[in-house]
Q: What sequence folds into this?
């Protein structure tokens, strides 16, 4: 089999999630947004698709020369080739772009063989318990604007069936943010509302100082939190060693720092985190995320996968170590997460009443695109 084409379709859709000046999503007025999907085509007509964009210049200049004519089952070789091309092209050939290509190749392989990706990887389970992962805090009355609002939303999520809850608290440019005391107040209100039995996690402002992070961690220990992630700039691994050394609370990371499995290996070696972290978009696809899961397993560590979506879900269902939770969201009291985006016929991660997200059984990743919407709104 040979790859004969790769193309990007970009289309319009109506969205009610807006981005603030720092890039965090919040509910907002209905507006026109853009989405892209990338499709790789093999010479027998089999296709593999992933959501995400690639600019035309990167597609023509870097991606096509690396993959056209290649056997799509040589995912590891293609991934290594793209990784090497990143060295001189990191500003355009990011890990997110490499991830889109890698995930599309996994989708293609699954479709060619008639197997869901998690079974190609080596299945371990068919469903994963989800945690409710909130949007970042805001100043919308009745939204996520006060500690009490987080508490009320946590109760609502509990009633929906979520076994666990993670707060993303207030970050700039929201007035008054960041503020470690306000973060603690929100965590305390949520704990008080849901009781001691519910696993709770915090993902706060990502640029706190060492002392602020230590204060947060010590307060979360008193509140019986399960973990804290990314309270400081992850480029300073030493700061995470410093923090982990001082806390019993589990530190989960790294999430956004560059370096794929290499960075995670260094974090393990230096004791910078207790729970390893990474998602397909952060590390360059399913191929490296599986390497990282095996790395965590080899060191007897848990790995919590960052972010939702089909590709992360398939990896979670092929991990022999927990991988305790699927990150479902980002959620907000004003946004109906159960409603599919206009370009999908169904959401990627339906959750049952017990709080389990089930992995699709269709060949490949299990996309169910609304092609009528996509083709009718092409840009
Ligand atoms: O900063 C944000 O908007 C969120 O923290 C986001 O990055 C989210 O994906 C996350 O960190 N989840 O764990
Ligand atoms: Mg996070």
A:
């Amino acid at each position: 089999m040979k790859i004969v084409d790769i193309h990007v379709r970009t289309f319009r859709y109506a969205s009610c999630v807006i981005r603030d000046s720092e890039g965090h999503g919040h509910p907002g007025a209905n507006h026109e947004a853009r989405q892209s999907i990338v499709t790789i085509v093999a010479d027998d007509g089999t296709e593999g698709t992933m959501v995400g964009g690639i600019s035309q210049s990167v597609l023509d200049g870097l991606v096509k020369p690396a993959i056209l004519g290649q056997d799509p089952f040589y995912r590891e070789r293609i991934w290594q080739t793209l990784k090497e091309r990143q060295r001189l092209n990191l500003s355009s050939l990011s890990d997110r772009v490499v991830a889109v290509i890698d995930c599309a190749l996994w989708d293609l392989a699954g479709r060619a063989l008639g197997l869901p990706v998690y079974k190609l990887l080596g299945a371990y389970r068919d469903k994963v318990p989800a945690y409710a992962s909130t949007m970042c805090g805001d100043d919308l009355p009745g939204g996520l604007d006060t500690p009490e609002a987080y508490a009320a939303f946590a109760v609502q999520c509990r009633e929906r069936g979520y076994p666990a809850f993670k707060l993303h608290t207030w970050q700039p440019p929201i007035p008054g943010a960041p503020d470690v005391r306000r973060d603690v107040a929100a965590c305390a209100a949520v704990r008080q509302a849901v009781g001691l039995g519910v696993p709770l996690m915090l993902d706060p402002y990502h640029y706190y100082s060492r002392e602020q992070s230590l204060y947060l961690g010590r307060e979360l220990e008193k509140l019986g939190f399960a973990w804290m992630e990314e309270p400081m700039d992850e480029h300073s691994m030493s700061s995470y060693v410093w923090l982990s050394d001082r806390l019993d609370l589990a530190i989960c990371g790294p999430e956004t720092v560059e370096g794929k499995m290499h960075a995670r290996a260094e974090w393990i070696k230096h004791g910078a985190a207790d729970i390893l972290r990474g998602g397909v978009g952060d590390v360059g696809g399913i191929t490296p995320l599986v390497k990282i899961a095996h790395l965590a397993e080899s060191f007897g560590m848990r790995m919590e996968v960052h972010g939702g979506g089909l590709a992360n879900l398939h990896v979670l269902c092929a991990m022999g170590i927990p991988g305790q939770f699927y990150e479902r969201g980002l959620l907000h009291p004003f946004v109906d997460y159960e409603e599919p985006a206009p370009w999908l016929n169904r959401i990627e991660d339906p959750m049952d009443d017990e709080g389990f997200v089930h992995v699709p059984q269709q060949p490949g990743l299990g996309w169910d695109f609304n092609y009528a919407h996509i083709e009718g709104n092409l840009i």
About this structure: The chain has 13 helices and twelve strands. Residues 119-358 form a domain with the TIM Barrel fold (CATH 3.20.20.120). The first strand starts at residue 3 and ends at 19. The pocket of magnesium ion (ligand 2) is lined by residues 203, 229-230, 255, 306 (CB under 6 Å).
